[in-house]
């Protein structure tokens, strides 16, 4: 893979993970309340805007990435986002990593490695 493809791939992972984490931070605020008050609280916090900005930028990066690699390869390489999110969720939100989840992460990582090397 060229340096540009790798850079776009890593940017995609970073932006997707950042967007998901920002949305989780906005949605998981214990002070948010319920119903309409919850949405009002989430809209007043920077996390929601940050998540949306990450997704808009990710869209541009993803299109650029897909313009350089075949779709089947791009989608498989993009699945590493699952691993990044699970690890980030563990460290930032204290989410559990069960044996089954770790096994899934290892399988996804192995698949991405195979696609990356075989490409």
UniProtKB/TrEMBL annotation:
Keywords: Membrane, Transmembrane, Transmembrane helix
Residue ranges constituting the EamA domain according to the UniProt record: 47-115
Segments crossing the lipid bilayer: 47-69, 75-93, 100-118
Protein name as annotated: Membrane protein
Organism: Stenotrophomonas nitritireducens
